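Researcher: I'm preparing a figure for a lab meeting and need a structural model of a single chain. I don't have an experimental structure, so a prediction will have to do for now. The sequence is pasted below. Please return the structure as tokens so I can convert it later.
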Amino acid sequence: MTETAFYILLSLTEPRHGYGIIKHVEEISNGRIRLGSGTIYGTLTKMQKDGVITVFADAERKTLYEITDSGKELITAEIERLKELHRNALKYEGEFK
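Model: Understood. Here is the structure written out token by token.
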């Protein structure tokens, strides 16, 4: 999973529109990640095709993105994979000092 996809899924704890995702990703990454429109919308389109998110319009006709059950399974598995990477990195970080 790309870092962009990871942070998009993390931001979908509630349905959000594209700009809301951009701002939330910037917030949860402490400003380290600033997604551009081309990056986010290309990734969102792929995620929709893959069944990871759904797209719908709210009462104001804004496009909203929501994580699917498949997307929840995917992000949960990715979080576990990253935890394992972190545990292994901590075990060996002293070897490189």
